[in-house]
Amino acid sequence: MDADEEDYVFYGTPIEREEEMTSRKKKAVAESSGLLRSLPPWKQEVTDEEGRRRFHGAFTGGFSAGFYNTVGSKEGWAPQSFTSSRKNRAEVKKQSIFNFLDDDEKEEMEGHSLGTSLQFDTFGFTAAELARKQAEKEQQQRPSAIPGPLPDEIVLPASESIGVKLLLKMGWRRGNSIKDSHTNSLYDARREARKAFLALSSDDVSTELAVSEGVKSDLQNVIELPANDDHKSSESTPVYVLNPKQDLHGLGYDPFKHAPEFRGFSMKNDLFAFKSGKVAPGFGIGALEELDVEDEDVYASGYDFEDNYVQEVEEPSGLVIDSKQKLGGKEKGVLSGFKVASKLDYQLERFDPPVVPKNFVPHHKFPAPLDDSNKHDGDPPPPEAIAPEDNNLKLLIEGVATLVARCGKLFEDLSREKNQSNPLFSFLTGGNGCDYYARKLWEERQKHNDKSKQLLDVKSSPTMQKMTAESRGKILGERPLERSSRDTNSSVASADVIQLQFNLSDTFTKPASLKELPEIAKPFKEDPAKQERFELFLKEKYHGGLRSTDSGGASNMSEAARAREKLDFEAAAETIEKGLRGKESNLSTQQFMEMSATAQAKVTQAEELVIKKMYPKREEFQWRPSPILCKRFDIIDPFMGKPPPAPRRRSKMDSLVFTSDSVKSTTVDETVTSKLPVAQLDPQQFSKDVNDREIEVNVEVEKVERPIDLYKAIFSDDSDDEVENSTSNQVDDPQRKIEAANTTLNRLMAGDFLESLGKELGLEVPPDMPQSINKARTPAPKEESNNVNPGNISSLAVENKPSSTYTAVKGTSVNQEGPHDKAYGQESTQEVRSQNNELILDSPSGGKIKVTGSSENESSKIKAEKMDQEGRKAKTPTGHRQNWSSDSSSEDERSRKRSRRRRHRSDSSDTDSSSDHQDRYHSRSKGRKKGSSREKSSSSRRRYSKHHKRGSRDSPSRSSRHSSERERSESKREKRR
Amino acid sequence: MAGLPKKEANVLRGHEGAVLAARFNGDGNYCLSCGKDRTIRLWNPHRGIHIKTYKSHGREVRDVHVAPDNSKLCSCGGDRQLFYWDVSTGRVIRKFRGHDSEVNAVKFNEYASVVVSAGYDRSLRAWDCRSHSTEPIQIIDTFSDSVMSVCLTKTEILAGSVDGTVRTFDIRIGRELSDDLGQPVNCISMSNDTNCILASCLDSTLRLLDRSTGELLQEYKGHTCKSYKMDCCLTNTDAHVTSGSEDGFIFFWDLVDASVVSSFRAHASVVTSVSYHPKDDCMITASVDGTIRVWKT
């Protein structure tokens, strides 16, 4: 028949025989012929060219969908079950996309897959692959004489690729590796050398044999190579070099030839020490582990003598090796093929170190400060002069000299000018007693300089700064501060500023007894803050009078610490005083320096004493051993039968917050409820505990709020800006404060409102629930963060902070929403206005006006929210739209709302798991009650609309924690629309 | 007064790399050592014989302790685990995992029913050897820094930490006493009459505390101890205090007047561990140089 058909020309499509057609096909044909086309769209079916139904509904397809056309197997989309690869490693197959595709899809895919076309298939890989596949296919189709797949070698690419052709033209012969013969030989040589080197370094005598064997086998390989088949060509690619040469030695050079005892060492180093030099020798870690800090050989750091030694030996270049080789050459003869040079050309040039001048003092003099008296340092001392016989004159001269020495040349000039006519002062102009004056002046200056110089030695850079300040004072003609030159012992720059101020204030109000204090050595040098407090303390002590309640920055210290510090200060002051008393007896500067040194020593002693007094410090806590520990130690559990223990403090966080001891007990209770696994507690006892705790908590609500702040700072996402805001609030504009106060007020009113609402709805609303219960039930710290009772007035102060930030955040979010709402808001601005006015009228205080009616965006938003409520009722899409836009508000706001929801929940006393539902119900009912809530204050309306918004947002999916989830919920909503 | 063990009787070699701890067993006939080479070794120090090697640790072994009946060992180290060994077979009976970081010290209690470990993760953990549970039966995490050393009495757990405290946990009363020394505590060691505790601080000072009052009784200075974990102990008569030094010396102080009675160079490198014989005048010292030396009078 086939032969017949070839002879004819056919027009049109042949009518197939009925029995040849599958039913599916028939259907497809029927469809294509328009039988089904007249059907209404919901009855039409989409099929592929085979007539298979393409789309299956969940109830019409299911299992059979998988069976009939998608996968082609009865199992359909059976999920891949885990099979351990441990026992049947060989069976593990890599999944590919082809496992999951239909035939037609596979075809499509294959059409797109990239492969080298035959022509450019240099080494015929693709061709070979194709051929092999083809052969396999064919072999499967027809039985062949040779069972099993054909070996690759038999199936060859039909044509030579262009690459092969090119290579052949370039002189490449089959069977050779693709490289010129030169490099080939070089490679062989290198390999040989490497082998030899390895053999040598593995310190076997027998290795030489192995080497020769290796070489031989290599040679054999080389000989064999040309004889190999064409397809061995790929074999001639170089073997991966396992041990690359990483040293700097010459080929075949064995650094341990003459020192075999180090060979093992170096090998170890090679193996293990390449990652970090400090790994302990001898033991690496497992191959699967990585070297860590803890693997560093801490002990080797100071004492790695062995390592040094080896390094010296290994040093590839330089003198060591040189000399060593020379030595070796002398002893054992030279390297084969070399001979010792009779005359050494290479002479190492050596230079003597520079000669240090004899008068050189290894001491650096820092540039002297801008003290004009220092200029006279270098002056030769004027000759010793006899004091004038007139005692008065002598005194006068001495006095002037001291003054001049202290205050500088200016004073001299001044007095000279003033007393020109006075005969007593003739010594200034070269009259009587002139040389004595010169001498005295020099002496005084010497003394004066001594002081500052001695201090200069000790001082470092901050003192230089100080000196500039001093010199500036001098230039301005101020009386030089005695303290400023002495206070410089403290080396902390920040303290300098404080001290400078302190000094300045000192110049003006210097108490009499404090005069001598400048010479104090600082007993609290390490702690500038403490030093400052100490100075304040001293000042107060010598001033007498009122003592400020808050001394310095000690406000953050606990009472106990303050008391302890005060004791320290007393002790230190006493020692200083003692030192001073001793000092007063001898006034000469030299002795003073000694004296101050001793005083310092005394102070340090005192310090030590203080430290000794402080340490060891014994504290006692309760500690609860676990019952089983007691059992194992054969001790009766001291807490047997007692309620679960109150852990002293769980973390450092608590200790950070609770500095004063009085609060400790409450923290304990707080943490217990939140952290103890509930399973341990039997419910009765638990409730009892909770009751106990309630009382405590109610007593000390003020203190309990504190960890909330802490938790917030640590856990909530918006902690940063909150903290910032709270700190900035203190300095911030009063407007924000007003806002904050208002919002708290609003919240309180809202609380009342909710309560009343709850009563209206017939729900029982308890008065303020103690927080401990909330805490116990909501273990997540985030939720705890804002867990404050709205009705709790005592918590108002604490409330302030977050609420103010809330408004701040809110403001930004409002701005964000602006564009969304604007379009809508434009449509009925009229209403907005009226609403706005209403708000303003409603608000009882001026501050509120600011909150509500200030910006267009804000008002439009309020309007939008209102619309939202209405839309909610009517289920119009616009309402959803509004919802959606509100969704785009910042993460901060949402988290805040979440936390507020918690609060709300606690208000409405619903504690079971269905709370969310109820919550929603609440908000919806509120929406219904909208009309009645009109007369409520604007604040409460704002608040409740917010509630509503939250409720509606929550309705499609509870979780709105992440943006992705949010998106999902959004899309859902869209779909519903 | 019996003489101090200053004569080197034996050198126990075998550890590759630093030896981190050497401990006499209960009766002083054997000693155990552990080190950077991840092994624990059992020796007869008096005859200088290496008896057994216990290998299982994945990283360095920092401390080892043998049960009073010599049947079990416990060890700990850089692999954050405690190993509970059978001495005779050398097999690991149990591994206690739970420390979040390296474990610095380990001790059996009196009945060898509990192992208490001190870790770099600022915690003390007690592990039950009787049950098959590998969970700690007690976690004490009041420390604020790495816990370096632990001592047990019949009713108390004592531990020294880098936060400068020596804490005593009294199981009988359920009380924790914290003695703040102000300096990182490297090692604590109890006097044989259990009235005092000797704490080696990282300011190169040993401090002797009265346990009942928390009073500082004496300070011993002269050695160097600034950066390595080093042991200290009292002699069997409680007459002297001994400790190694980072320069390889061993120091003996008089307990009462804190004078250096003797000091001599014992090792080439840091002396990590000292252990005094419970009855005789014999001491073993371990060092980073890889040797353990036995000292006798």
SSE blueprint and pairings:
The complex is a heterodimer of chains A (977) and B (297).
Chain A: H1 2-7, H2 23-32, H3 63-70, H4 103-112, H5 125-141, H6 162-169, H7 181-201, H8 207-227, H9 263-272, H10 305-314, H11 319-332, H12 391-407, H13 409-418, H14 434-458, H15 461-475, H16 482-486, H17 493-508, H18 528-543, H19 559-585, H20 589-614, E1 617-622, H21 627-632, H22 652-657, H23 664-675, H24 683-699, H25 701-715, H26 719-731, H27 734-760, H28 771-777, H29 781-785, H30 796-827, H31 829-842, H32 846-853, H33 856-874, H34 877-887, H35 891-907, H36 915-928, H37 930-933, H38 938-954, H39 963-976
Helix pairs in contact in A: 7-8, 12-13, 12-14, 19-20, 23-24, 23-28, 25-26, 26-30, 27-30, 27-32, 27-38, 30-33, 31-32, 31-33, 33-34, 33-38, 36-38
Chain B: E1 7-13, E2 19-24, E3 31-35, E4 39-44, E5 49-55, E6 61-66, E7 72-77, E8 81-86, E9 92-97, E10 103-108, E11 114-119, E12 124-128, E13 136-140, E14 147-152, E15 156-161, E16 165-170, E17 175-180, E18 185-190, E19 196-201, E20 205-210, E21 216-221, E22 232-234, E23 240-244, E24 249-254, E25 260-265, E26 271-276, E27 282-287, E28 291-296
Antiparallel strand pairs in B: 1-28, 2-3, 3-4, 4-5, 6-7, 7-8, 8-9, 10-11, 11-12, 12-13, 14-15, 15-16, 16-17, 18-19, 19-20, 20-21, 22-23, 23-24, 24-25, 26-27, 27-28
